[in-house]
Amino acid sequence: MGFATTAIHAGNEPDPTTGAVTVPIYQTSTYAQDGLGRHKGYEYARTQNPTRHAVEQNIAALEGARFGYAFASGMAAIDSTLRLIKAGEHVIVSDNTYGGTFRLFSRVLANYGIEFSFVDTTDASNVEAAIKENTRMVFVETPTNPVMMVTDLQAVSTIAHRAGARVVCDNTFMSPYLQRPLEFGVDIVVHSTTKYLNGHSDSVGGIVVLNDERDAEWLQFIQNSVGAILSPFDSWLVLRGTKTLAVRMEQHDASGRSVAAFLEEHPKVQKLYYPGSVSHRQHDLAKRQQRGFGGMVAFDVGSLANASTVLEQVRVCTLAESLGGVETLISHPATMTHASVLPETRERLGITDGLVRISVGLEDVDDIIADLDQALGKIA
């Protein structure tokens, strides 16, 4: 089946009791059992829930995976994935990664004996150079948040597997509609379902999808044992969101290209970060690895004062954290999403005080461009 058909039907079988075409919200904490050891497959809602199971099946199918496990947030999904790693083992991570991921790895998990190396994974030779005898995972984000650098998933997977390490890819920025990392050798894919998968800025969640049965059994055990599960209502919201994922991503992609083209030519923009631009040094790799370029665009206006002017003058764009919603969201990574990253590290990665990130929404693209144009025009 095609992607849009899968998005609408996978995990969304009509309710056997009523025939409802939308999976019900099973808002229950427990389930009646027929007798000792006799039940209908559901015992306790932390362990199993039909609505959550439906969204897990749905997103796993969209990524081409066998197994999926939904969590209360993207960070809970990432944290649970790292439970595959033991104390004394080593993980290689994209140096330009989401600030929350950096914070979890460097300030939380590092305290429990896991060793992390943050490297520029856009050059596969850096990954090879960072491999150690105890390397058990390579965690990449592509394109990266927020400067949109691209990692060659096939090359990195080959290097990691040769060393006996799993490869995990955070695919939040692209969604499975525009990129399917498992097809390039990646072992595990994580998403913040809060973003494009849900698509309406009204739910927080995360998911892990994979094909390896042993790792899947452990992740299911962790999901139940730790209990950071996606609620029934949030599961239903994400299921509603994925049904329109294909059409939404087509428009995000088309509008993203238009906004990026406008910004690249604007005299107040000093630098554009967008893999869809032929000026991006990894444009060709992005074309090979992705079905499109999406709605995430970043640009530098040279200073904090200039960035503040733009962020405070927009009217159609909404100044807010997060991304992937139907509305255009605009943010300042240095003080918002990446505030936990050391200033010198931010500067080295290009996350300057003048950097602005846009999640291009589904408004009329001419209105988005006009809004950015008037805001940029207020820069002295």
Question: Topology of this protein?
Answer:
Elements: H1 3-9, H2 50-63, E1 67-71, H3 74-81, E2 90-94, H4 99-108, E3 115-119, H5 124-130, E4 135-141, H6 153-162, E5 166-170, H7 175-178, E6 188-192, E7 206-210, H8 213-226, H9 232-242, H10 245-265, E8 271-273, H11 283-289, E9 296-300, H12 304-313, E10 318-319, E11 329-331, H13 343-349, E12 355-359, H14 365-376
Parallel strand pairs: 2-3, 2-4, 4-5, 5-6, 10-11
Antiparallel strand pairs: 1-7, 6-7, 8-9, 9-12, 11-12
Notable characteristics:
380 residues; alpha/beta; Aspartate Aminotransferase, domain 2; Aspartate Aminotransferase, domain 1; seven-stranded mixed sheet; five-stranded mixed sheet; 12 strands; globular
Descriptive notes:
The chain is of the alpha/beta class and 380 residues long. The protein has 2 domains: 3-242, Aspartate Aminotransferase, domain 2, CATH 3.40.640.10; 245-376, Aspartate Aminotransferase, domain 1, CATH 3.90.1150. 37% of the residues lie in helices and 14% in strands. The protein is built from 14 helices and 12 strands. Strands 1-7-6-5-4-2-3 form a 7-stranded mixed beta sheet, sandwiched between helices. Strands 8-9-12-11-10 form a 5-stranded mixed beta sheet. Helix 6 (153-162) links the parallel strand 4 (135-141) and strand 5 (166-170). Helix 2 runs parallel beside helix 9 (232-242). The longest helix is centred in the last third of the chain and has 21 residues, at 245-265. It is globular. The mean pLDDT is 96.
